[in-house]
């Protein structure tokens, strides 16, 4: 189990402290923050428990709050506001934890795409084979126009340019090719 509060650091006389500690306001020293954390650990844990549902998450949030306030202790100028900073950080971290959980649940609750059954796959393969066989029975130009138009997803103008045909010829080959395919597919069924 993780310790509920950081280990205490023995207080150093003011003469031994570095310039960094002397430049800070009284409420931002590590010792004051540590003492505030120790004194209010249970109430901070209770605050997190109101927002989160499991003890481990609550402990993690409270300890993370201490670390974050410790890292930003230069911003706390008034010793009376140290506890307020800790409380607000606990609330913010709890909200973030809940958002991550909700997002995870949303992602998990999305249904998996429907998978085709073996019968459907076999039927699709049969239809595909019939279509390929019917395509082989078309005239070469009809087959080229239909493949470029519908399988390569080209516009009629692009097909005309690729094949070196007029736009009217592409339309005519396409129309006749679809009619021949329809007849061949109906005959195969």
TrEMBL record:
Question: Where in the sequence does UniProt note compositional bias of the Low complexity kind?
Answer: 1-13
What positions does the domain RNA polymerase sigma factor 70 region 4 type occupy?
A: 129-181
Query: Which GO molecular function entries does the Swiss-Prot or TrEMBL record give?
Result: DNA binding; sigma factor activity
Judging by the UniProt lineage, the source's domain of life is Bacteria
Span of the secretion signal? Answer: none
Transmembrane parts of this sequence:
none
Pfam families cross-referenced by the UniProt entry: Sigma70_r2, Sigma70_r4_2
Q: Which GO terms describe its biological process?
A: DNA-templated transcription initiation
Q: Which UniProt keywords apply?
A: DNA-binding, Sigma factor, Transcription, Transcription regulation
Cited Gene3D superfamilies: 1.10.1740.10, Winged helix-like DNA-binding domain superfamily/Winged helix DNA-binding domain (1.10.10.10)
Annotated segments matching region Disordered? 1-25
Q: Where is the RNA polymerase sigma-70 region domain?
A: 37-101
**Family named by the database record:** Belongs to the sigma-70 factor family. ECF subfamily.
Which NCBIfam families does this chain map to? SigE-fam_strep, sigma70-ECF
Matching entries from PANTHER family are given as: ECF RNA POLYMERASE SIGMA FACTOR SIGM, RNA POLYMERASE ECF-TYPE SIGMA FACTO
Task: State what protein this is by name.
Answer: SigE family RNA polymerase sigma factor
Taxonomic lineage of the native organism: Bacteria, Bacillati, Actinomycetota, Actinomycetes, Kitasatosporales
